[in-house]
Amino acid sequence: MTRCSWCGDDPLYVRYHDEEWGVPSHxxxxxxxxxxxxxxxxxxxxxxxxxxxxxxxxxxxxxxPKKIARYDRRKIASLMKNEGIVRNRLKIEGTVxxxxxxxxxxxxxGTFDKFIWQFTDANVMSKALKKRGFTFVGxxxxxxxxxxxxxxxxxxxxxxxxx
Length: 163
Fold this sequence. Notes:
- There is one protein chain.
- The protein is 58% helix and 0% strand.
- By secondary structure, it is mainly alpha-helical.
- The two termini are 14 Å apart.
């Protein structure tokens, strides 16, 4: 079976590639999770974030934006001590900011899915997200997000997942 070369032979990476990466997602919570995990990856490798994903889900209330939007300084301080996640204050505070922006966007469009799936260009998506108050959403992060949630299909031409 031929796969995209980037996933190598790490079982976690292979499972992510085979079961999730590039599969069109229209679930708002999953979209929120992936947008924030892609932002957490900035400056790091995706496998690092993938390995920390269970800890992220626990630390960030399974990526419930309503709960995250209410995080206060004490909660952020607690997250800064959590060795299971990337302890970067800007990224942690960014997730809280993103939760607020996500909820406002969802309120306006009915679902975040309706808003985010209108984009086919990472630069345009990045600008629109930044305008709405999102952070850690530069064009590179947006493109990786688009790949992860299936907005674009970047499986290699000979990858069994391409079709």
